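How a chain folds remains the central question behind the approach discussed here. For one protein, we set the task of working out the structure tokens from the amino acid sequence alone. The sequence in question and its structure tokens are set out directly beneath this paragraph.

_____
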Amino acid sequence: MSSFFLEWFALDRDAGIGNLIWRWFTAHIVHFSAVHFLLNLAGMLVIAAINRAFLFSRQGGLSFIFLGLWVSAGIWLFNPEIVTYAGLSGVLHGLFVLAIVITDQYRRAFKAFLLLLWMGKVLLEQSGYFDLSGRADALGVAVAVDAHLYGLIGGIVFLAVSCLFAYLQKRVSKI
């Protein structure tokens, strides 16, 4: 990706707080390299294959915005060592959770299995036993595995808030 786009759109601590807020969203649109972009595109295609209707719905759009802001906030608050962040993988981790839970295509047991597998992958990344340093050469930057954790948690939070709103809306309509 052109350094121009990274300079203006990536989450960048050096840009200062005044330029930061809009970057909390745009950071997930720019990438460090073509390989980085293609890997994230492949992730988006997997999510579309699981639940295209969700991904291109109003709820999918809102979750994309929420997860972008959520992941950026997580990086900003808990990862001061990350000076520049760009990429979609954190958001993709949350979208994967939502696409699996919301789809009617699979049985509950299979959905639970996929979610546990996904959570296990993220926990393995956090433990340090799953080494992603080999990807750094291909991507042109180290993998921000904490973004994956923030995306996973953000997907669960978005799901919980959506369920709460649906429940409250149902209760209010009965009155």
